[in-house]
């Protein structure tokens, strides 16, 4: 099987490393230096900055920031057969699936729930997807054979599979991924001068702010692309903060304790007492 991966960053290069023993991997990246490094390290066997390298592929994976996925798809489909299965790795799905489905009959949206706060080829790893969940988001008329191909692809990388409507995906991701990242980023405004007190930073601060080191280009695109779900959540969060502010300001100790207890109960119900 020839597998072409467009974008040799954290996700794309990790997939190449996971699949290199079972597929003929071609890589495309805008950086000729990254392409050359991936070739020298044996991560890919063909590489170029030119989409034409995707010709003859059985599967093409687009692993670029969300804002560039649709344009990238339109460029690569000029070089591939209509029976080539095309997928992406974007963290938003509705707009991407609707747009590419109009242009290419063998597109299947997908999103691996895996990653690290540090982006780029240098941080890629073959086991990134092992034990992770990969969400597949077909359109209404997507052929079952294409879905099965992408399912096998992610399973070969070590991921489990969940099939989901792309609009449902975006609503869920806004809550469980996109808002936490936004809040972690925003918290850094309060921490700008804490480097002089670095020795005082505990695990709570480290855990809450870890994802604020993530790729700002990727997250800029995600926040814009999923704005219809994120903006109402920002309003809801602000209302919750106002409620907490009132309880603290008015010294309502029992009400504050009850509210915090309700939050803790939700957290324990999600993860159990051991985590």
Brief characterization of the structure:
The protein has 275 residues and is an alpha/beta fold.
Describe the structure in your own words:
With 275 residues, this protein is an alpha/beta fold. The chain has 2 domains: 2-164, NAD(P)-binding Rossmann-like Domain (Rossmann fold, 3-Layer(aba) Sandwich); 169-271, 6-phosphogluconate dehydrogenase C-terminal fold. The protein is 49% helix and 13% strand. It is built from 10 helices and 8 strands. It has helices at 10-19, 32-40, 66-76, 94-103, 144-156, 166-187, 203-209, 216-225, 227-249, 253-271; strands at residues 2-6, 24-28, 46-48, 59-62, 85-88, 107-113, 133-137, 160-163. Strands 3-2-1-4-5-6-7-8 form an 8-stranded mixed β-sheet, sandwiched between helices. α4 links the parallel β5 (85-88) and β6. α6 packs across α9 (227-249). The longest helix has 23 residues, at 227-249. The two termini are 41 Å apart.
Low-confidence regions: none
Most strands sheet: 8 strands, mixed
* Number of domain modules: 2
Question: What's the overall geometry?
Answer: globular
In CATH, the homologous superfamily of the largest domain goes by the name NAD(P)-binding Rossmann-like Domain
